[in-house]
Design goal:
Strand content: under 5%
Order of helices and strands: HHHHHHHHHH
Shape: globular
Oligomer: single chain
Length: 215
């Protein structure tokens, strides 16, 4: 029964994390429908997290996780270095990067829509699903608490590895780009599990995408 439960949880996770990509993607060519679908996705995700556990630490003014400045600082440095190396290698043709023109085409040439989704909406939705809901499904409350003190245990690291692969797969990297796309979810997962505050990986994710947009 335990094996079946674990299998069911992973199937559930696979279905849940497909939502951030599936729902907004269906409406990219319609601005109003796109924003409506994205807002609905965010509301559903926040509602799930809140009603699953009313003590869940996502209150607007809950800043406990931000007191762990080392996690935030190290996360920003790693993400910044990762982005810089990726940009340098892609500029020299060593790793493949999606062109800006392809991204504009996906959003019907609407730069505002593209950057709003890329820098703000995308990070919020993805973190709620990939970090918030993902770990709430696959790790118990006690395992989440234990991860704050000792994250390097077998189950937690395996769960982080699955998170990294699924998150990277959603972004469709090619060739060596996989290496750089695995760094992001690793840093974001560690920051969430160590601080128990979803706003920390959300802010780091926004920082990462903002750097990518500026570079």
């Amino acid at each position: 029964m335990k094996i079946l439960k674990v299998f069911f949880n992973y199937i559930l996770v696979a279905l849940v994390i497909s939502i951030p990509a599936a729902i907004p993607a269906m409406f990219k060519n319609n601005t109003i429908a796109f924003y409506t679908a994205t807002i609905v996705t965010i509301c559903i995700s926040f509602s799930y997290v809140y009603f699953e556990n009313k003590n869940y630490k996502f209150g607007l003014f809950y800043l406990e996780g931000f007191k762990n400045k080392k996690i935030i600082l190290y996360g920003m440095i790693i993400l910044l270095v990762n982005q810089f190396i990726f940009i340098v290698l892609s500029a020299n043709g060593i790793v493949a990067e999606r062109s800006r023109s392809d991204l504009y085409a996906e959003f019907s040439g609407n730069a505002f829509l593209l950057y709003t989704y890329f820098i703000v909406i995308g990070p919020i939705v993805e973190e709620v699903f990939f970090r918030g809901i993902f770990y709430k499904i696959l790790l118990s409350k006690q395992e989440m608490l234990n991860a704050q003190n000792n994250i390097f245990n077998r189950k937690t690291m395996f769960t982080i590895l699955v998170n990294m692969i699924l998150f990277s797969f959603l972004h469709k990297p090619e060739g060596l780009a996989w290496i750089f796309f695995l760094v992001g979810p690793f840093v974001l997962s560690i920051s969430y599990l160590k601080t128990d505050n979803l706003k920390v990986p959300i802010c780091l994710h926004i920082f990462n995408n903002l750097v990518a947009a500026l570079l």
